[in-house]
Protein 1
Amino acid sequence: MLVLTWIVVALCLALGAWAAVRALRDQAVILRQLFAAGAVEAVLLVQLLVLGVLQARGAQVDDGVTLWGYAISMLLILPAAAVVSFLERTRWSSVVLLIAALTTAFLQYRVLVLWSA
C-alpha cells in the first residue's frame, strides 16, 4: 500500500508540473497529458483494489468511511478534470489539470495518514 501511494504521488506531481509548465506558457492541455492522467487513474484503480483486499483480510482503519470517501473522490477528480480540460481549450485547461493533480496527490497523503493511524 505504501509503495502504491508514493507511486501515485510521484505521478501526480509529475503531471502537475507538466500542466504548470503548459499553463505558464499559455498553452492548453494536450492529449498526451490526458493519457498520463489515465495512467494515474489506472494506478489509482490498482490501489483501490489493494485497499479493498487488505480490508477484506482484516486490516483495521480508524475511520474507514473517510478513507473510502477519499479513495472514491480520487477516482472522480482526474476524469472530471480531463472532461473540463478537453472542453476548455485555453491555458485554463492546464490550470484545471494542475489543480486536479495536486488535489489527488494531497488526497493520497491523507489516505496514507489514515492508513498509518
Protein 2
Amino acid sequence: MDKKEITQRNIVEKKVIEKERQESEDIIKILYSKMIANKMNLEFDQAIHDPEIIQVVYLIDQDVDLINQKIKKNLKKWSFLEMNPVNIAILQLAIYQMKENKLPVSVIINEALNFTKKYSDVKSKNFIHHVLSNVSKEYYE
C-alpha cells in the first residue's frame, strides 16, 4: 500500500468512527429524553428518524429491565432512582453494546467515559467506569 492509499483508508476509517460516535450520541440523547418525558408524564416525540438509531433504541427498550438490573447489581452506595438520567442512558447503551459483542470492551468503556465527560459531572466518570468494568466481566470473561 502506498502513502496515498493509506491516507485515503485512514480518512474513511475516521469518517466511519465519527459516524458511529454520532449515532451513539443520538441514541443516548433519545434514551435520556424518553426517561425525562416518562418522569414528567409527557408524550415522547422522537426527533431522530434514522432507522439504524431507531432500531438500537428499540432493542435497548426490549432489554431495558435486564440492562437496568445489571446497573442496579453494580451500585454500591448509589440508588438507581437517584441516578442522573444521562448516566443511566450512557450505561444502557454501553451495556447493550457489550451484549451485542461487536466492539472491544475497552472501546465501549472509553466511549462511555467520553460521553460522561461531555454530558455529566466529573464524579460520574469513576462511577460509570466501575459499573461498566463489573458488567464487562459478565460478557467478556
